[in-house]
């Protein structure tokens, strides 16, 4: 006669056991802990030989807890297909308990099933049902042929329901936690992407952010001349990183492959491979060594998304799991797509900035004189010191020698940087040279600039200092100066002493109203006139006199015969090394 499983489970015992299960499940924080609680209590209460819990993971069932099984069983059944013909899988798909009392019933339902022993075997499978989805199954088995009465089966089902509720709770908590982690990751990644226009450095930082929380390794590839080139690679192990790079170099991906990065490029759509099988690796490998490398990397799951912006696909970002057990889902696809969009915008912005920067630099080089004229009796030199930033500034200078021997000199500064500043700089230089050709007198040139600004209302603010040198028949050289919001030039006498030539007119171009003051000074033999932009002498929290004092001290060491080499030294001695501003300096030496 078959032993009845439900007989030892009287009502009081069931309530005590259920209370214990419920209490311990409330304290469980992982599915593995839930499995240990439920399997342990059910095996003890039912005096079962073996108990286990398997949960649904995509298209598979994963074994998360087992008790009483023989060696090797847990490894063999660590993962098995949900669509397969097994008691647990059938119970999950059917959504109802399955009971097999005895060897004959088991083999009738599953002829190819391997039993743990030659004797009779009784098996109970209890499905775990969530709010709408099947979550997994609890299985219990006994040696021998046993009857499972309704009371015992009801108790098992109640425990299974408690297990399902705990798994649902943990999954919901994990979903909230994962959502918060993803939002924080996107915030951190966005901050990295916005921190610099060096997209190679920022994308490497973003790749490192993803590992190991969201991927075992991350690869970002850009499309260059039709070929994908690795730009960023992150993996916690340096040796594995080298192996991945070696793999890509020795065995570049097939551009016509039906899956992989090139397919993502062609389609412009993300790709999810929830479970990378050995058959997939074998199909991708070109030879036995290639296959072994792929196997050694332990590919498990992968998700890729295109770096797409403005109807262009710039490249691909891929996350891969290997040693971890995580398998990507559609939620990960949406998450990675969000990151890919942000990265693509950052790359596009950096490329646009690079193009504008190059344009501004070319425009600046075209505007600044390649060579300065050297009038009779004079030496002219200039130096342009760019700040640490990569985009072009708006500082400009020029020297014009008139047919009658007079010398027009000017230095200006357009506020701002980039194409706009360089464009305004070009317009200013052209306008000043045009006004010089009409009438080089300082008051006329500045009045013309003021009128031009009043008429055209340019968006950039501009300062400028202009001077005209005229040598009288008796050999006296007189410099007449006028300024619009620009630092005053410095006159270094032949004896090494210096003086500021005139107070700077604080009114910018366009607001002078014809009230500009013209300053006159005689320039003797050996004297040097220095005209410069504000980046040379201005510092935060410092009076302008202090900067002018530093310049006077540095100018005392200028050697007239080596003027071109001396100007960079003056700039290095005087400027604020922490100030993000270009410096232009022009020197006019009377021999």
TrEMBL record:
InterPro entries the record matches: Bact_Sigma-Reg, GAF, GAF-like_dom_sf, PPM-type-like_dom_sf, PPM-type_phosphatase-like_dom
Residues of the PPM-type phosphatase domain: 375-590
Coiled-coil features, chain-numbered ranges: none
UniProt KW keywords: Hydrolase
GO MF entries: phosphatase activity
Gene3D superfamilies: 3.30.450.40, PPM-type phosphatase domain
Top-level taxonomic group: Bacteria
Domain GAF, residue spans: 22-177, 198-357
UniProt-recorded name of the protein: GAF domain-containing protein
């Amino acid at each position: 006669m078959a032993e009845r499983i439900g007989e030892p489970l009287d009502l009081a015992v069931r309530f005590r056991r259920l209370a214990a299960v419920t209490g311990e499940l409330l304290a469980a924080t992982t599915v593995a802990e839930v499995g240990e609680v439920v399997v342990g209590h059910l095996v003890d209460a039912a005096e079962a030989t073996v108990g286990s819990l398997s949960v649904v993971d995509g298209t598979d069932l994963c074994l998360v807890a087992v008790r009483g099984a023989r060696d090797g069983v847990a490894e063999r059944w660590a993962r098995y297909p949900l669509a397969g013909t097994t008691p647990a899988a059938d119970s999950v798909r059917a959504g109802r308990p399955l009971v097999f009392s005895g060897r004959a019933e088991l083999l009738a339902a599953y002829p190819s099933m391997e039993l743990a022993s030659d004797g009779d075997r009784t098996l109970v499978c209890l499905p775990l049902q969530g709010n709408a989805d099947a979550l997994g199954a609890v299985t219990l088995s006994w040696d021998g042929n046993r009857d499972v009465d309704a009371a015992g089966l009801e108790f098992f089902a109640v425990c299974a329901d408690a297990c399902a509720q705990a798994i649902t709770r943990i999954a919901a908590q994990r979903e909230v936690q994962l959502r918060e982690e993803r939002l924080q990751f996107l915030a951190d990644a966005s901050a990295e992407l916005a921190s610099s226009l060096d997209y190679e450095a920022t994308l490497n930082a973003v790749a490192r952010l993803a590992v190991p929380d969201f991927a075992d390794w991350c690869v970002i590839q850009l499309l260059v001349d039709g070929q994908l080139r690795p730009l960023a690679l992150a993996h916690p192990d340096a040796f594995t990183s080298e192996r991945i790079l070696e793999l890509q170099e020795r065995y570049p991906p097939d551009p016509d492959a039906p899956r992989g990065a090139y397919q993502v490029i062609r389609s412009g759509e993300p790709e999810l491979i929830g479970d990378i099988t050995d058959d997939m690796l074998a199909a991708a490998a070109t030879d036995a060594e290639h296959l072994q490398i792929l196997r050694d990397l332990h590919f498990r799951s992968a998700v890729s998304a295109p770096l797409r912006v403005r109807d262009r696909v710039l490249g691909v970002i891929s996350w891969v799991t290997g040693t971890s057990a995580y398998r990507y889902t559609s939620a990960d696809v949406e998450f990675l797509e969000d990151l890919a969009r942000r990265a693509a915008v950052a790359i596009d912005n950096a490329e646009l900035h690079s193009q504008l920067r190059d344009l501004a630099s070319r425009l600046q080089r075209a505007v600044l004189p390649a060579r300065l004229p050297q009038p009779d009796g004079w030496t002219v030199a200039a130096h342009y010191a760019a700040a640490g930033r990569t985009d072009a500034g708006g500082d400009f200078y020029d020297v014009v020698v008139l047919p009658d021997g007079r010398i027009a000199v000017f230095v200006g500064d357009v506020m701002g940087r980039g194409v706009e500043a360089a464009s305004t700089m070009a317009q200013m230089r052209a306008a000043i040279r045009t006004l010089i050709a009409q009438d080089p007198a300082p008051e006329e040139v500045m009045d013309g600039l003021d009128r031009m600004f009043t008429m055209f209302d340019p968006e950039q603010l501009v300062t400028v200092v202009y001077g005209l040198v005229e040598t009288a028949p008796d050999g006296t050289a007189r410099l007449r100066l006028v300024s619009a919001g620009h630092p005053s030039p410095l006159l270094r006498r032949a004896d090494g002493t210096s003086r500021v030539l005139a107070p700077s007119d604080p009114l910018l171009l366009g607001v002078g109203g014809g009230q500009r003051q013209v300053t006159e000074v005689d320039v003797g033999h050996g004297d040097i006139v220095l005209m410069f932009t504000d980046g040379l002498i201005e510092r935060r929290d410092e009076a302008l006199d202090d900067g002018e004092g530093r310049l006077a001290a540095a100018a005392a060491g200028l050697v007239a015969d080596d003027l071109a080499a001396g100007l960079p030294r003056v700039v290095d001695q005087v400027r604020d090394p922490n100030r993000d501003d270009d410096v232009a300096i022009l020197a006019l030496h009377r021999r």
